[in-house]
Amino acid sequence: xxxxxxxxxxxxxxxxxxxxxxxxxxxxxxxxxxxxxxxxxxxxxxxxxxxxxxxxxxxxxxxxxxxxxxxxxxxxxxxxxxxxxxxxxxxxxxxxxxxxxxxxxxxxxxxxxxxxxxxxxxxxxxxxxxxxxxxxxxxxxxxxxxxxxxxxxxxxxxxxxxxxxxxxxxxxxxxxxxxxxxxxxxxxxxxxxxxxxxxxxxxxxxxxxxxxxxxxxxxxxxxxxxxxxxxxxxxxxxxxxxxxxx
Length: 246
Ligand code: SAM
Prior knowledge:
The chain is of the alpha/beta class. It has two domains: 3-151, Alpha/beta knot, CATH 3.40.1280; 167-234, Orthogonal Bundle (Trp Operon Repressor, Chain A), CATH 1.10.1270. It is 33% helix and 17% strand. It is built from seven helices and nine strands, in the order E-H-E-E-E-H-E-H-E-H-E-H-E-E-H-H. It has a five-stranded parallel beta sheet. The chain has a two-stranded antiparallel ribbon with strand order 3-4. Helix 1 links the parallel strand 1 (3-9) and strand 2. Helix 2 runs parallel beside helix 4, helix 3 (94-102) crosses helix 5 and helix 6 (199-217) runs antiparallel to helix 7 (219-234). The longest helix has 19 residues, at 199-217. 27% of the residues are buried. The model is unreliable at 234-246 (pLDDT under 50). S-adenosylmethionine binds next to strand 5. The site of S-adenosylmethionine has 19 residues, from strand 5.
């Protein structure tokens, strides 16, 4: 069944954008997923097609109106998760991406200006998601990021050569370093173990590197990995094949 994405935006021309090329673009052509970019402005009711207004309480900028947004959401609300992309939301994780990809699809609401009226978030029970601790000028790039992360996990989108089991976060760790030909480049040699042909040694090296990189760069992931480690070890594999922590 086709995984369906609806994006509510003031700038529908921004879609599919980069998602029309490469893996996601080919999957779109094959109808593995569908994308509709819906113009929020089509739900404005006055003759100027107003979608925003000044904030109660004063302050800079404009706020998107709840009545217009509610009508836009109602037009495509069919049980799929409805997400408002906002720097105030919970950080997007690979775990949540996997859940979205396993479902029927998503409805994504892209804010602009100062953001959206709080009451529509409450009334519609919107899930608020952030793609990072920085502020974009609009939710559209965040929607593209979320969709890219989901679409690549849909069945048949990635080939066997691009398995999601062997990448960052799959086992609660960042990924180990990669090397390819030439075996020596600018005086830098590939680690000997990778040329040894000894699969067990390669797996152990990769796991140690994944642990080192995670410990150095992401103390938050490292702490969670350590608390989950007994379970990861029981499941037996190296980092590259250990199932994701729940
Ligand atoms: N006034 C808001 C604040 O301080 O949190 C920022 C509004 S921003 C200029 C306009 C829109 O961009 C937001 O409504 C949201 O949809 C989107 N946006 C900005 N940064 C984002 C992020 N890190 N993750 C997801 N969406 C973001």
